[in-house]
From TrEMBL, chain A:
This is Na+/H+ antiporter subunit C. InterPro entries: CPA3_antiporter_subunitC (IPR050601), NUOK/Mnh_C1-like (IPR039428). It is found in: Cell membrane. The keyword Cell membrane applies. It is a multi-pass membrane protein. Belongs to the CPA3 antiporters (TC 2.A.63) subunit C family. GO terms for cellular component: plasma membrane. Pfam families: Oxidored_q2. The chain crosses the membrane at residues 6-21, 28-49, 75-95. Keywords: Cell membrane, Membrane, Transmembrane, Transmembrane helix. Its main location: membrane. The keyword Ligase does not apply.
From TrEMBL, chain B:
Residues 61-108 form the NADH-Ubiquinone oxidoreductase (complex I) chain 5 N-terminal domain. This is Monovalent cation/H+ antiporter subunit A. One of its GO terms (biological process) is monoatomic ion transport. The chain crosses the membrane at residues 28-54, 75-95, 107-123, 130-147, 159-182, 203-224, 267-289, 296-314, 320-341, 362-382, 402-424, 445-468, 488-516, 564-581, 596-616, 621-641, 647-665, 685-703, 741-760. The keyword Transport applies. Its main location: membrane.
Amino acid sequence: MEILLALMVGILYGSGIYMMLRRSMVKLIIGIILLGNGANLLIFLLGRITKGAPPIISGDAKVFAEAYADPVPQALILTAIVISFGLQSFAIVLVKRAHTVVRTDDLDEMNATDEDS
Amino acid sequence: MLTAILTGFLFSILLIFAGRFIKGKLSILASLVPLGLFVYFTQFISSISNGEIIMRSYEWIPSFGVDLGFKLDGLSLLFSLMITGIGFLVFAYTSSYLKGHEYLDRFYGYLGSFMGAMLGLVLSDNMITLFVFWELTSISSFFLIGFNNTNPASRKSALTALGITGIGGLFLLAGALLLNNIAGTYSISEMLTMSEAIRGNEFYFLAVLLIFGAAFTKSAQFPFHFWLPGAMKAPTPVSTYLHSATMVKAGIYLLMRFTPVLGGEQIWNTTLIIVGGFTMLYSAFHTIFRTDLKGVLAYSTISALGILVFLTGLGTQEAFLAAAVFIIVHALYKATLFLVTGIIDHQTHTRDITRLSGLNKIMLPVGIAGILAAISSAGIPPTLGFVGKELTYEASYHSESLVIFLMIAIVLTKILLLYAGFVAGIKPFTGKLPEEHSNVKMPGFIMWAPPLLLAILGVIFGVAPFIIESALIKPVVTSMGGDASEIHLALWHGFNLVFILSLITIGVGTALYFIIKPSKKLEEGIAKFDFIAPENILEKFNKLFIMISNFWTNFFQNGYLRNYISIIILFLVVLVGYIMVGNTRFAIDYNSLSKITVYEITTTLILIAGIFYTVFTQSRLAAVAAMGVVGLSICLIFVFYSAPDLAMTQFSIDTLTVILFVLVLYKLPKYLKLSDYKTRLRDGILSTIFGLIITTLALEVLSEPVSKEVGDFYAANSYIEAHGKNVVNVILVDFRGADTLIEISVLSIAAVGVFGLMKLRLKMKDRRRYADTRLSEENENKKQ
């Protein structure tokens, strides 16, 4: 399964970059989201995956009795997901606003700061 | 001594507040500053001539070995007296020359800070302090050359001068650091004691080159000479003071100062003789082709600097003596000629030598000054110039090798300089007064007295050279590492080969003066060769440099986001790919991998399908929906592999993102197919390679052992210390609580930004444009 996951991470990265290279702003944002998902999955994979053993101490025990999944990558990814949501929502609204003002979705037409170019 | 140096700077600072008082009739009072300093320095003459060396040291940055160390010996004293003495005359002269000028206070401010910097330069014993003052002189020179800042030519010349001398300053700094590395000290007097060790060091050659780089740029030696004629755009008092008498001699000063430390080796002497010799001949020859008085003087100054470099290079006792005398000779006659030129320019409003003659009928004292200076420059007895020339000839005659070549070079130079001196000093004051100048008036006393005083000094020192012999000349020779006890200056040296050469020089030079008349034709003739002149080569190089920089910047900073991304990714791919080729082992232990179940296969397939659908669909809505599918599949993977918290978060965030996207989507334009097939193929290949690299990288990392130490710590303490059983939660809200707090703040900021972008209204201007575009779009729709 690890190999499969690694392959998926590669696909997510590749497609994310491909979308970011498009000229449309909407595609740019989709690309960023895909890339973000890829990065999360990569961290998750590299922290080693464990099946059926969530890092939650069961019942009355005070410490883990048996093997458990590493909680550190999970904590990192959780933070990353939330932060990337902040980024994505801001980017989406920014695109909308930019479109309202300059009336284009084409990034190539937005490469100058001067109004009349 | 520090006070003396700071006086100039204090004076300039004072002018910021008291400038308007100095602009009026009181402007002559400014000259009291250099006069006071001159008097201050004269009191050291007797002790210095007794062989004393006065040292003062103030701590500055002791941890770097940098202190404000000052040393007053023969060489520094000579320069200090020149700086303050000529400074006094120039300050006084300026008060009349720029009378009522709007920015006279500013001018005095620049002059004052220059004087302070120049004094600091010649008195510094510490190389870092020397460097600081060296740069300060370049900067004040920049302001003075560009004083007429409304004139583009002035600004350009100022920049050129700053550029060339600034590069020289960097050489000096590098040289200082290197010498510090070799000698372990920045103090020049300490370097003196370890001259042997420095000369034997493997970096000696480099150190000499750096010092040469500094000296040749500052003292306008070929091929860096061209900034000096350009610097003549400055008002004439500046040309007199900085670009003839003092600042341009800073390079000579540096060479003389380092002669006892670095000199005596083949590379030192030969380079100086070649560079100095070529410069003196080249620029003396150039004077023939100038019709602007200041142009003639500029080139003859470069030539004189060349002679000084040449003499320093000869490295003999006689040469040091000749150099010491020639510095004084040149300062006296060249300052006079510049001041005279300034008067002519001021009164007749022209410096065109072809239009000037017979002015002695109007301004006799100025004429006397000019003619005396010309005679001194020609080396005709009884002036000090004659003494200087005799010594120069003798030094060249007694050099160790190639006497013939050296003699020819120096005699030719002197002949041409004689011509230049006559053109500048005698031509305007002889012959018939042209009609156009018949209304010219006699200048005021304050203007003609300084040049006359300097010219007369040149004669007095010539008749009675003993006045300066022990007071100034001998200590300078001692400072340069020579033995001064045998020196005896005299006007009459006896009838010998040198005297015959002197006669020949005077004869041929005078003949030349009567044969060649300065004319526009000659000037235009030489202009044809401008394309091989160093300044034009530099200019072309500058243009090329700007072109390449432009290309470079526009290539990388082209304003297209996707080009930035492509370059970054390409760079990463090449770099990581290069390392990975050959280092990839594919050594995963297949037994340690988790088993694949049918659920996982299904999820993976959905995920891959979702990704490809997102990328290739033509509809925005479908793309966003597919993206949601991708997010949910990842959510499932989290569920399978023991990360319930992640799954929860991913689920809610993914849903929220899709909703937000859909909410604003209807306002966005249709998906346009903007790129052509080729571009997409190229991007596709790049992305695929990038994805492959990431996959390989992940597999490589998986084959390495992993440490769970940090995770174990949290797991062990989660309940015992923090009383929580969900370890991930405990990490976020307890162990790393502060991080989470900051994360919440970031989210709040993003939320405020989102709110602002959604709700705030457009500015009037934008709203109008928005309305306009709406209108035109509607019109187009109607047409269709």
